[in-house]
Design a protein that fits this description.
The complex is a heterodimer of chains A (144) and B (98). Chain A is of the alpha+beta class and 144 residues long. Chain A has two helices and six strands, in the order H-E-E-H-E-E-E-E. In chain A, 34% of the residues are buried. The chains are: A alpha+beta (144), B mainly alpha (98).
């Protein structure tokens, strides 16, 4: 099992609430990590969102960004004892630029912009085929 | 030092207006920290990031222990002016090119 898979395994979310499949790349130097998630066309969400026009919910795009930020934190602080994901404190400047359709593969990128007394500021993007689909900034707090 | 503190007050006023709106909380140096919403670590951190946008990546250069001392000193302040004095002492002197 490679280093990226080890990090992915440490994400505490259960299988039904995981919105990242794979870590694509990461850089300690640039404090950034990219993960991907492919949305199966038969995903049960599409039965209700929306029955006549299936699109992937914006809140789940935000969750994918947040999970990617969590993976970045796990990756950067992997040598710290008790390393765990930071918990969301604030989401802001969220923008949803294009609808995400069944079958799409989303690439999430999280980058740390700063931190103070355990509070970390992340800038996150979601791209599809190299086009920006959504972006947001997060503040999250590390408790360990 | 005064110039840096005044600039800090200007940044804090802008932050307060963004968070609270321009009419609800008239800003002045003597306004209490609580009145502009600098009441917890989240709000204080958000405000500090506004200073970083102007003065560079100064907070991240502080050690964990310096950050803890910085945060403790910020929590002791009563007014916007006192808050900005502490900010100037810890981060803005280093980050400013003045």
């Amino acid at each position: 099992m490679n280093d990226f898979n080890n990090i992915l395994e440490k994400l505490p979310h259960g299988k039904d609430f995981r919105f990242v499949d794979k870590i694509v790349e990461a850089s300690s130097l640039n404090k950034t990590l990219t993960a991907s998630y492919t949305i199966g066309p038969a995903n049960a969400i599409f039965a209700s969102h929306f029955p006549e026009f299936p699109i992937w919910p914006g809140v789940l795009i935000l969750e994918g960004m947040a999970q990617t930020a969590g993976l970045l934190s796990l990756y950067l602080f992997k040598d710290e004892p008790g390393n765990s994901i930071p918990l969301l404190a604030k989401i802001y400047n969220a923008r949803f630029i294009t609808p995400v359709l069944p079958g799409a593969t989303i690439h999430y990128t999280a980058t740390i912009e700063g931190g103070f007394v355990g509070m970390i500021k992340f800038r996150c993007t979601a791209t599809i085929d190299n086009s920006l689909a959504a972006e947001a900034k997060f503040l999250a707090k590390k408790y360990l | 030092m005064n110039t840096i503190k005044e600039e800090a007050l200007h940044i804090l006023e802008k932050w307060s207006q963004d968070v609270n709106g321009t009419s609800r909380v008239p800003f002045s140096p003597s306004i209490s920290r609580e009145e502009i919403g600098l009441i917890d670590s989240l709000a204080i951190t958000e405000a500090l990031f506004s200073f970083e946008e102007k003065f560079g990546d100064t907070i991240s250069k502080l050690t964990s222990e310096q950050q803890r001392m910085f945060f403790a000193d910020l929590q002791k302040t009563a007014t916007a002016e006192e808050f900005c004095e502490v900010v100037a002492t810890y981060i803005m002197e280093e980050g400013s090119d003045k």
